[in-house]
């Protein structure tokens, strides 16, 4: 602890992570929970109060995770360096988290890129994700192209908006599309 600043670090063969700022160790995840409770009140999440307002920056680098994934029997393996960065400011109701995972395997399926970005403000929580699947060549064809799948979502005052997009950018056999959804969260008289 240096004045109002705290520093928490984790260094290992597969991850280097630091959290720096004004935060309480036991209340770091409360910020995410409370933002969800604010933007989706019908979920009936009770805000967690600790009397402490978090204000911190997170920076993590993840490396080859084959050993730890095997040890913990996890379905995901990070094959190349990846990163997670973010900020949290409870008083302003802001959370921003950006992750980029390169060359990962989940349940034996390989992905070139998996990116996720989320942020909140006083109006909404937004989540954007991008997944790139490796290119596959078809028999008797020289054409190959990776498939990209994108998701954009937002939650504001119990309204959820989602958009799914996909495309493969092939000249022949081009596959692309978009699906948009909007839903309103409500609670019935039983509280469900």
Can you offer a commentary on this structure?
The protein starts with 5 loop residues before the first strand and ends in an 8-residue tail after the last strand. Helix content is 8%, strand content 49%. The chain is built from two helices and eleven strands. The chain is flat. Strands 1, 2, 3, 4, 5, 6, 7, 8, 9, 10 and 11 form an eleven-stranded antiparallel β-sheet that branches. A hairpin with a 2-residue loop joins β9 and β10. It is mostly beta strands.
Keywords for this entry:
single chain; 192 residues; flat
Low-confidence stretches: none
What's the N-to-C terminus distance?
A: 43 Å
The total count of helices amounts to: 2
Order of helices and strands: EEHEHEEEEEEEE
The radius of gyration computed from the alpha-carbon positions, rounded to a whole number of angstroms, is: 20 Å
- Give helix % range: under 10%
Would you tell me the structural class of the helices and strands?
mainly beta
Number of strands: 11
Mean pLDDT: 83
Major β-sheet profile: 11 strands, antiparallel
Strand fraction equals over 45%
Shape: flat
């Amino acid at each position: 602890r240096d004045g109002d600043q705290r520093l928490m670090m984790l260094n290992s063969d597969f991850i280097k992570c630091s959290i720096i700022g004004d935060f309480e160790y036991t209340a770091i995840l409360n910020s995410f929970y409370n933002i969800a409770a604010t933007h989706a009140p019908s979920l009936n999440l009770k805000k967690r109060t600790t009397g402490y307002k978090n204000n911190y920056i997170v920076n993590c680098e993840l490396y080859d995770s084959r050993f730890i994934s095997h040890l913990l029997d996890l379905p995901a393996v990070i094959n190349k360096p990846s990163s997670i960065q973010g900020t949290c400011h409870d008083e302003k109701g802001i959370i921003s988290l950006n992750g980029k995972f390169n060359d990962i395997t989940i349940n034996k399926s390989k992905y070139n890129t998996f990116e996720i970005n989320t942020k909140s403000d006083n109006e909404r929580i937004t989540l954007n994700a991008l997944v790139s699947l490796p290119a596959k060549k078809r028999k008797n064809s020289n054409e190959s192209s990776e498939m990209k799948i994108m998701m954009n979502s937002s939650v504001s005052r119990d309204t959820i908006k989602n958009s799914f997009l996909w495309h493969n950018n092939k000249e022949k056999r081009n596959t692309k599309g978009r699906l948009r959804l909007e839903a309103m969260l409500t609670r019935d008289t039983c509280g469900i």
